[in-house]
Design a protein that fits this description.
87 residues; alpha+beta; S16 Ribosomal Protein, Chain: A; five-stranded mixed sheet; 3 helices
Length: 87
């Protein structure tokens, strides 16, 4: 069961915001997911990021792989280093 941490697009046309979710690798971008882990809004200045840190760390400890974009978000918030230090 490979799990990915990735973005799920929400919002209106030309006004996107994204949920950060844990989903099966084969699931569609906006399809089924296992858990909502946070919120990312790139349209604000600076970009708004809200995460459930304990749940993100849980999924990273279980072996979930973040996508490139989610990985950069986690790196900016410092969660990626915290997960590497724990495991």
């Amino acid at each position: 069961m490979p799990v990915r941490l990735r973005l799920m697009r929400m919002g209106a046309k030309k006004r996107p915001f994204f949920r950060i979710v844990a989903a099966h690798k084969e699931a569609k971008r906006d399809g089924r997911f296992l858990e909502i882990l946070g919120f990312y809004d790139p349209k604000t200045d600076p970009a708004t990021v809200r995460l459930k840190e304990d749940r993100v760390l849980y999924w990273l400890e279980k072996g979930a792989q973040p996508t490139e974009t989610v990985g950069s978000i986690l790196k900016k918030t410092g969660l990626l280093e915290k997960a590497q230090a724990l495991g």
